Amino acid sequence: MSDNTTHTIQLTLKPGQHDGDGQRVAEAAARHLGLATGRVRSAALYTVRYPLSETQLHDFATRCLADPVLHDVRLNELTGAEGFATYILVARRPGVTDDEGTSAQNALADILNEPLDVHTQHIFSKKLYLLENDLPESDLRRIAEELLGNKLINWLEVGRVADGIRDYTPRPGGGAEAITEVISLTGRSDAELVQLSKENIYALNLEEMQAVRDHFAAAETQAERQAAGLPADPTDCELEIIAQTWSEHCKHKEFSALINYKDLATGEEKQVDSLFKTYIKDATAEVDRQLRANGNDWLVKVFSDNAGAVRINPDSLFVWKVETHNSPSAIDPYGGAITGILGNNRDPLATGIGGARLLFNTNVLCFGNPEYDGPLLTGQLHPRRILEGVRKGIEDGGNKSGVPTVNGAIVFDDRYAGKPLVYCGTGAVMPMQFAGKDSWEKNIDAGDRIIMAGGRVGKDGIHGATFSSIELDETAPATAVQIGSPITQKLAMDFLLLAARRGLLKCSTDNGAGGLSSSVGELAGISGGAVVELEKVPLKYPGLRPWEIFVSESQERFTLVVEPGKMAEITALGQEMEVELTDIGHFTADGFLDVRFDGAPVARLNMHFLHEGVPRKILEAEWTRPALTEPTFTSPPDPLSRGEGAPDMHSIEPSGSPLRGRGAGGEVSQPRIALPADYTETLTQLLGSLNICSRESVIRQYDHEVKGRTIVKPLMGATGQAPQDAAVVRFNFESWEGVAVSNGIIPRYGDLDAYDMSAGSFDEAVRQIIAVGGKLPNLTPGDGIFWSVNDNFCVPDSVYDATSNPDGKQKLAKLVRMCEALRDATAAYCIPLTSGKDSMKNDFKADGVKISVPPTVLYSMTAKMEDVRRAVTSDFKQADDVVYLLGETHDELGGSDFYALHGQLGANVPKVDFAKAKALYTLVGQANDQRLIQSCHDLSDGGLAVALAETTFGYGYGAEIDLPAAGLPLATQLFSESHSRFLATVAPEDVVAFEQLLGSRATRLGRVTLDGQLTVRHAGQPVISANTATLRAAWTNGPVNKLLGVVSKDNLSHSNSL
Amino acid sequence: MVQDGAHRAHKVQSEAQAGATASAGAVQALILTGFGINCEEEFAAAYRLAGAEATIVHLNQVLHGQVSIHDFDILNFPGGFSFGDDLGSGVVLANKLRYRQNGPHGRTLLDDIKQFIANGKFVFGICNGFQVLVKLGLLPNLGGNVVPEVTLTHNASGRYEDRWVTLRVNPASNTPFLNGMDRLEVPVRHGEGRLVIPDAATQAAIETAGLNCLTYADFDGSATDVYPFNPNGAALNCAGLTDPTGQVFGLMPHPEAFLSAYNHPDWARRRRQSPEASEEGEGLQIFKNIVAHIAQKNTSTAPAAQLANQH
Fold first, then answer.
1. What are the CA-CA distances from residue A511 to residues A444, A454, A518, A682, A917 (Å)?
2. Residue among A125, A407, A705 with most chain B CBs within 10 A, to mutate
3. Runs of H (alpha helix) within B7-103
4. Which residues of A fall within a CB distance of 8 Å from B86?
5. Please, are residues A860 and A799 in contact by the beta-carbon 8 Å criterion?
6. β-strand A405-412 against A357-367: which pairing, if any?
7. Which entry of A71, A122, A325, A902 is annotated as an active-site residue?
8. B142 within domain boundaries
């Protein structure tokens, strides 16, 4: 550190202080990489690039950074310690968010008592790890790259301490580059147009490139451009704007396409004129018509804003949005997930005028098997690493924003090993009015100012989806990976809340995909045009070209619309709350998006062409029913002919992954399942299986009760280990009104039938809300019970191509069928969709291999709870309560966890009978009105047997259950996953009333016992007999908690193969 | 901060029910927010349910002199992640209070807080707010000179956790916040809640004075160092501290997250057992205690309080 303006501060733990960080690195290296590091010592490093006297440096280090109880401080020396042979230094690459550095800068400003621009980075935080063992450089690199950092965002130095510790501090370079280039399209051949699109990552196909070329060649365009002083050919910025606006992400071209659908079995052919319009928008319009006809006019805003809005009561709105962040999470799991959750938070925050109060987050995650031990493809991250990174991203994104993560789900399937699915949901509450204006409206007039608020702009996320191919180096401060900064967003969020309530905002939107190009482009559609002055946009560092500034996806930014007369007041508020606001232009009504840099034209695009000019896609879909076989059961030996305690007849392959055999090619000839006489072991195995076992280690690292309003949490009961079906959150402390939140997702059924998979997922989410005490909408005129659903489709590439995607037509047919089920479900239950998203290219290609996700849809549901105190939880409440099965069980083991345990897929996929389901749900609602139900758990993965076990987990009750000898085979009764069923308990004194109400829909199974023993009899013979504490232990000690559980010293002694 | 009309600060009120006014003479609670603090709403709700008037203000309003802490009876530091907690929980906020010179003559907010306490008023920190009070040296403040004497750092488990714990009140504690309380259940939600006491002498002094006012306990109510009953491995199994005056109080768990009986994970079974039980949560008692204590003090020493308000 030669120059006097650069200093290094190193904090190490005092002798005797527990070095948890170092210990975790040692343990993880042993567990996951099989490397013995010996002791590991961690140190925090801060490089300060700011003129400080020696005293100032010393004071800053000892008083602000070091904890006097914990730390020793070293200044301007980067040396190892006695007994440590090697080191790993983890720094950040140029431009990567460094919240720790920013915080340190804040502290420096406070101790110096001088203003210090926090937007210019003066302090760079790093971590230094010293390792006892003299590991070779290749091993050090593995630890660095696989456990400590990500090559895309971190600069990693490793080596021997004896050779000197190499430091790294990013030095963003480059001068201003106000260069706008012109790209000629005229005269280019089709092949050249496609090549240009590919080279510049426009992601536009030939028809789209031709449409752009033709637009610029048109005489009218030429005349307009000449008059406005624009070159005849498009500028780089203009092509970038068009590419962003026309991207699948923004325009949903495939959901809007014309689809020719053929059913190869029946020969039926039909044309679908836009999936979105046919199955989502029109279906919701029909639901709304029925609602309004019945005096239920709570559907306020659907599909047309960042999030959907429904009315809670005359004073407030509930705003609900769920999105995915899959591709970024595949490459940088932590960064992908945290930007996913923060980005999704911005949607309800910037709905209508903006300034809603966030109420809760949910997340649903789909991963490959974290215990996978095979080879990885180039660039593919291990599923365990993706799981851990995503989990941490959600922890930081939710906890640090003060938004409770109230529920979620994790689905494991090997086909998510290439691209994981990361669904983030956020619910919020907004007053109906802000300063006398309707809060949900977005009004903009010509002359209104365009204000960028929040973070600054860097090269982050330019061309989001393709960043993995960009080489990052010292001279180009490009970092294509985004890391969210929850604290920056929290400040902006607090500001928006106040600005909206004071009437300073006309409206707002978030800057996500496409950055300013997208946010200003969309808002300009309201007023009819905009002028943007890009030189005013504050940058993280110099060196961005105008087009880069316009399309950068730097995080934590909002675009605000402010009337000129309110500029002074909002600017003052921003200064007071330390949120940077920049006036970057104004809205117009001239029909053009006009972008300038220092007065020079950068882009001037016709708004109509920009938003409506994209050519429509025509796609092909072909449905063929998969060839499926139902396995046959071989009967157990007659229990009377063998002695007590005879070994179970188990012909399961317990060594196999529970997911094996579920893929498309998983046909097994002559499938047979040999049934045991006793199912205790089968139930125990199911409870400990990857897709059923407890997620407690994940759940507890999310704050699920900040705000103090969470009434039904993911885990409840005296043990805190009883899993629940839906979350319940109250809106405020003044009333008992609240909202129930559930998730329906069952991708494995899609291997049997995509329609039934989608219908079942929808029903699953509905019945979870019914289980927790919610009521179906529109049963009573004007009852005001809102439901708000987001649909999120995540499918593999479904556009047919003879070579690259030969089964594209089949995949698209699956998507069509999923949408058909969605339409049928919304109509049957009268439940509207309010927003949603589709992610169409969930494939991972490397080394000539393609891993595609199974077609997946998530239905994220919310419904009003009139009184959260009447919520019903899943766990048994009292001994001698009577246990009922509600709903009908069918021979529907196809796709079940029971079959999966036996390596089978089966054929009989569970189907939803919407009419019967609705009738049952209506009656359950009536039973709850009469307070007849003490506990209620929906039946899903693992069927009745797993539900029975789970309902005992809250307190340690047991149950005595008798299953009928007649009817379905025992295994089917226990494990069928037929939809629209519940396991409910009723107090003895309410049995008569309950049975009268439910009639034949309720089957009496037995009673709750105090002895902690689960006994299930069939034809009088015990078929399950287990201590419920043992069952709970099997569930709790399943693979997820084991993988993420507290690392103990025991793990140091043996390595495992991961 | 720029304020609407004559309103001195942003009053806490539900969006749906604007216009609630405080009765004259109500206990006045000031709740700080901004910069990553995120439990201010439930903190304010707790005071309102306890009969006080709660005012949430952005920290800058206080630092810039638009709001004076001396107009209030109790100063509150809520939980959250102030300034992202990147340098260690509560560190940056504590630095700001200690070093940022606001008033004339280099006066800091910490100077004001010392005066506030000397005036017989109260300071309360929960979770991140507790961390701030510890890093400032306001807790335990054995030496009376407000320098850090203990610290709170990463949980022994190395991870953030949200789980419910049982606390036992130290009978030797003299703080009015815990008047008449013996035990309570509350959620912990933190990653850095492990109390570290640097030496035996400090530990002995804390114990002798009964400043370790709250202890993690097992099902029997006995102090425990067993995870997860003691969720973070804190020294003395300590969950909360007071200063020797009892006026400054802080704890890692969240009593403001247990204002209603329906916050408890086992509420549904418990209400089945006792349908007529109170709908209040156990955490509310702490707020009722301090509000009652201040109200009583204010009625008996009204003139003194007036003087302090004119500071």
1. 17, 10, 7, 50, 42
2. A705
3. 40-49, 59-63, 91-99
4. 99-100, 102-104, 125, 487
5. no
6. parallel
7. A325
8. yes
Per-residue pLDDT of chain B (311 residues), as tens digits, is 443 433 434 433 333 333 334 456 899 999 999 989 999 999 999 999 999 999 999 999 999 889 999 999 999 999 998 887 778 888 889 999 999 888 777 899 999 999 999 999 999 999 999 999 999 999 999 999 999 999 999 999 889 999 999 999 999 999 999 999 999 999 999 999 999 999 999 999 999 999 999 999 998 889 999 999 999 999 999 999 999 999 999 999 999 999 999 999 999 999 999 999 999 999 999 999 999 999 999 988 655 444 444 44
What's the fold here for domain A6-171? Answer: Mth169; Chain: A , (3.30.1280)
Q: Give the CATH number, domain containing residue B39.
A: 3.40.50.880
**Residue A612 marked in a binding site:** no
If we measure between CA atoms, which residue out of A652, A609, A640 comes closest to residue A224? A609
**Cα separation, A91 vs B267, whole angstroms:** 47
Beta bridge partners of B169: B214
CB A13 within 8 A of CB A127: no
Tokens of A565: 């007369």
Tell me if A708 and B135 make a contact (CB, 8 A cut-off).
Answer: no
Is B120 inside any structural domain? yes
Provide the ipTM.
0.91
For residue A313, which amino acid is it? Answer: N
Q: Which residue of B has its CA nearest to A703?
A: B162
> Is the torsion defined by CA of A729, A731, A735, A740 positive or negative?
negative
DSSP state of B232: S
Is the distance from CB of B54 to CB of B38 less than 8 angstroms?
no
Residue of A473, A485, A535 whose CA lies nearest to A101? A485
Total structural domains within chain B: 1
pTM higher than 0.90: yes
- Determine, yes or no, domain membership for B284: yes
Q: How many CB atoms lie within 10 A of CB A618?
A: 11
Q: Where in chain A is the domain with CATH 3.30.1280.10?
A: 6-171
Q: What fold, for A185-270+442-614? A: Phosphoribosyl-aminoimidazole Synthetase; Chain A, domain 2 (3.90.650)
Cα dist from A392 to A30, A448, A704, whole Å: 21, 40, 15
Task: Give yes or no for a contact between A532 and A595, defined as CB atoms under 8 angstroms apart.
Answer: yes
Q: How many whole angstroms separate alpha carbon A208 and alpha carbon A198? A: 13
Best interface-test mutation with B: which of A490, A491, A721, A933 has the largest number of B CBs within 10 A? A490
Q: Where are the beta strands (DSSP E) in A132-257?
A: 154-160
The residues of chain A that CATH labels 3.90.650.10 are: 185-270+442-614
In a domain, residue B96? The reply is yes
Query: How far is the CA of A508 from the CAs of A445, A519, A876, B129, in angstroms?
Result: 13, 9, 47, 33
Q: In A, which residues are within 8 Å of B4 by CB distance?
A: 502
Question: What separation, in Å, do the N-terminal and C-terminal C-alpha atoms of chain A show?
Answer: 40
Question: Cis before residue B228, ω within 30 degrees of 0?
Answer: yes
Cα torsion through A223, A224, A229, A230, rounded to 10: -100
Question: Nearest-CA distance from A454 to chain B in Å?
Answer: 13
Nearest to A99 among B34, B86, B273 (CB): B86
Residue B58: give the domain boundaries. Answer: 28-309
Q: Count CB atoms within 10 A of the CB of residue B296.
A: 12
d(CA A291, CA A304): 19
* B91:A107 CB<8 A: yes
Query: Cβ(A5)–Cβ(A47) under 8 Å?
Result: no
What are the tokens at A472?
Answer: 């990052």
Q: How far lies A167's CA from each of A103, A126, A131, in Å? A: 21, 9, 17
CB A404 within 8 A of CB A712: no
B193 SS3 class: coil
